[in-house]
Amino acid sequence: MGKTLFDKVWDAHVVDSIKGGPDVLYIDKHLIHEVTSPVAFLGLDNRGIKVLRPENTVATPDHNIPTMNQDKPIQDELSRMQVDKLSENTKKHGITLYGLNHQYHGVVHVIGPELGISQPGMTIVCGDSHTATHGAFGSVAFGIGTSEVEMVFASQCIMQPKPKKMRITVNGQLGKGVTAKDLILYIISKLTASGGTGYFIEYAGNTFTNLSMEGRMTVCNMSIECGARGGLIAPDKTTFDYVKGRKFTPKGEEWGKKLTEWEKLYTDKDAVFDKELAFDAADIEPMITYGTNPGMGMGVTQSIEVHNNATYKKALDYMQFKAGEQILGTPVDYVFVGSCTNGRIEDLREFTSFLKGKKKADNTTVWIVPGSKQVEKQAIEEGIDKVLAESGIIMRQPGCSACLAMNDDKVPAGKLAVATSNRNFEGRQGPGSRTILSSPLTAAAAAITGKISDPREEFKL
């Protein structure tokens, strides 16, 4: 029987298998940030041991850093302490750190791919659930907890039960105004927020192979939002063209050797999955969420589903919506474009391409946050910052920003935000804040009109 892509990568990294228990899995790359690493480092100190392979670890602060005035000391005491501790710990253990204002600084799941740290066939972990992003390269990438971060520090291995395998196939061309973000929000709305629990998802079909690498990263990033352990897409020419020539990718003869290996990373025709699902790209329209988990999503022109259960009613009460109503036209207080889901240059280009000659709505505050210093630099070189400024928007500096309420970029209580990030939980963007997830294109329509709008209508697509 043939193997799935997931099997090929996972099995190649199994150091040992515990009978009736988890596998001991070797980890190729370990990404760390300021929030989930301090206690793990403390655990090493208490045991009197060092990081086994510091050259396999890369660090950057991203979660709770400010996105303005990064050249000045961090004002929040806890944030400053965590960032300082990351600097101290990485120096002590000989780990590469891309700190604030470094040319390679940024959101951990943005800098990994853009620097060529993330490569096909790897195992990649980070103390962050959206590590699934790197699966876009045909790698097995997943988030881990603080105790597991310490385990990888100490042994470069982790004990993990092998997940079940799901394949989601989507074929057909995405309609006008429909993006990779809409594609994954649609899938999650069909699976629900728990439909992928226990599985690792492989995305297959020409809808995915026609996506750019940025689009594939957006899809894999949100695999965790349907409960899956992670998601991956088989590497192909698009993948190899993206990876080639980046700072940490193989060069010369080594590139040829690696390419030969990577070209074997695909699911065999006779491989068997534990679950198979299929969707038609033509059925997808620009998506928005209306509840308090990413599974509560619908097309922007649709009406909220009617369900008679307490959890559903609680979510709608929190969001101040009613079952059966449309939310098209609902006033929007904040728009946020950024995060490890949609903070790449392609996302900023998509947002600003429809802003030229237009002004943002007076009732809406707009935060545009590049995912890294390299994205910021490219945006400036392309004049994106100028287009934003002419529209009444200031481009902020790299960081996780309003994706989560761990820094200064918080949406006030009761206010409604349209966000290109990955989660819309209660208080995710600030205590009492309300979040609608969307694509950068739908966010652009909201920024201009000051309300939930169909980008196809607003931009005459």
Keywords:
461 residues; Aconitase, Domain 2; Aconitase, domain 3; 3 domains; five-stranded parallel sheet; four-stranded parallel sheet
Can you tell me about this structure?
It is a single chain. The chain is an alpha/beta fold and 461 residues long. Helix content is 32%, strand content 16%. The chain folds into three domains: 5-161, Aconitase, domain 3 (2-Layer Sandwich), CATH 3.30.499; 164-235 and 266-283, 3-Layer(aba) Sandwich (Aconitase, Domain 2), CATH 3.40.1060; 287-458, 2-Layer Sandwich (Aconitase, domain 3). The strands form five sheets. The chain has a five-stranded parallel sheet, sandwiched between helices. A four-stranded parallel sheet has the order 11-10-9-12. Helix 2 links the parallel strand 3 (29-32) and strand 4. Helix 13 (345-353) runs parallel beside helix 16 (440-449). The termini are far apart.
Helices and strands in order:
Elements lengths: L4 H8 L1 E4 L5 E4 L2 E4 L5 H10 L9 E3 L17 H17 L2 E2 L10 H7 L8 E4 L13 E4 L2 H10 L1 E4 L3 E8 L8 H12 L7 E6 L1 H4 L3 H9 L8 E3 L4 H7 L8 H11 L12 E6 L6 E3 L7 E3 L10 H10 L14 E4 L1 H4 L2 H9 L11 E4 L4 H9 L2 H7 L25 E4 L14 E4 L2 H10 L5 H4 L3
